[in-house]
Structure formats: structure tokens, C-alpha cells
Amino acid sequence: MLMDTIEREILSNHLKSWILQAGKLIRDKINDPRIISFKSNPNDLVTEMDKEVERYFAKKINEFYPDHLLLGEEGYGHEEFNKKDTIWIIDPIDGTMNFVHQKQNFAISLAVYHQGVGEIGYIYDVMNNTLYGALRGNGAFKNDVKLLPLTNESITLNQSVIAFSHRLLMKNRFINEKYMQQLTEDVRGIRSYGSAAIGLARVAEGALDAYITMRLEPWDIAAGRIIVEEVGGIITNASGKEIGLLERSSVIATHPDLHSILVKKYLQKGLKRNRRK
231 or 246: whose pLDDT is higher? Predict the structure, then answer.
């Protein structure tokens, strides 16, 4: 059963208020000394602010929605999930390396899924004070201005600007770099933002025509997936298959005109055998 419309509106208002408050908390402390550690490798950074923001959301959810579950990057949520539950999926700072080194180009990503369906998604570009949001079936918005459907304008590959990491142009364990090198020659431009949430938001607003990455966690894409799909974009894994709600996955999010050619001509052919799922 889908979430009740009135219930969803009330929930969305809470999300919007809390994410803006969390953003202010970050801005107020942006120049404070950082406590920085790393998780899986020295480039996988985490700061005290990541943890503080996730704790803030965990407290709000427990206070207002104690029967809801939380999946968060920093471990303040639940450990077991059922797709029939209402699940909040949070990345408190998506783009922590940008947060540490640049003090910009990072975002808060917050989504609510009910019985496996994406109901609400918000991405907050904190330092630019830009809020992207979507409610299932109601379209997507940027600072309360409705985003136009991507299908309003057609695009060809040689006109497109796409985003992916420079690491895919070098030898790597995910994809044959020659296919990605060829792709850079076939498009108008390549960008890299260092934040999956911002990359997905850019696709939704039409500032990017595709975003490609080989490994994301559920909290990296949960909100962006809802927003991209609400404007008619396509988001799958690199093989062109649906991404499970709670699974780690490769991701390609695109303007609908580009998904097929990017998947079939470059990604499916270039993916290393153990990555073809």
C-alpha cells in the first residue's frame, strides 16, 4: 500500500524543515577545526560533523516517528530491515572529501521509502543553499521551482555533458578504461563533482546529461533516485538492470535519450566480467 497523501505531505514538511536546520548547523561550524578519520581507506573520510548531523536526524526520527527505521552511513540507525517498513535513508554529508578540502560541493541526502517505494527525496547543496526535492507522482523541485521533464528536450551523445570519476580513465577493477576513454571523445564534455547526490541532482535539473559511477551505497543514491525518476530520467546499474533498495551498486543516471547507448556501447562492453550483474 502506498503512503497516504496527507501523511506524506506532513512527513515531507518535517524532512524539509530538518534538512534545512541541519544545513545551517553545518554552515555555522564550517570553519571549526575538524576531527577527521577514515573508514575503508585513507580517501574514505569521515568527520565529527558527519556523525553529528546523522545523530541529529536519528533523534528527530525517534522522537516523531519511532516506528520508522533509519539506514544511515554513520551507523546511528537500525541493522535489520524489511522492505515493508518505512525506511529513512540518510547520507549526512555526501562528498566528505569536498567538505574537508573545499568547504563546498557537498550535500545532505535524505529519502523516505515506504514498502519499497520511494515516497520523498531531498538533496541539500548546503553551501549554495539549494534544495532539490521530490514527492512520488508530484514531480521534482529546485528551491520550490518545479523542474521541467527531461523529455521536453531531446539530446544526442555528441551534445551531452556527463560526469564520472577520472579514475575510470585509468586501469581499475571495474571497467576497461579504453571504453571510458572513448566515451570522453564522443561527448561534449566530462565533469566530476565528488558527490553522488550533487551529480544526481544535476542530472535531474538538466545541467548534466548523465552521471556514471561504479560503486555506491544505498544512502548515496536513495534521494537522487526519486528526484531523477520524477523528471523522467532513467537510473539503473551499469548493466542496465534495476538497483535494489538496500544494495551496493554501480549507477548510471541519464536523460532518457542517452541511457541505452551509454549502457550498450560503453558500459556493458567495458565492464569486467565479475562486475556484470
Answer: 231
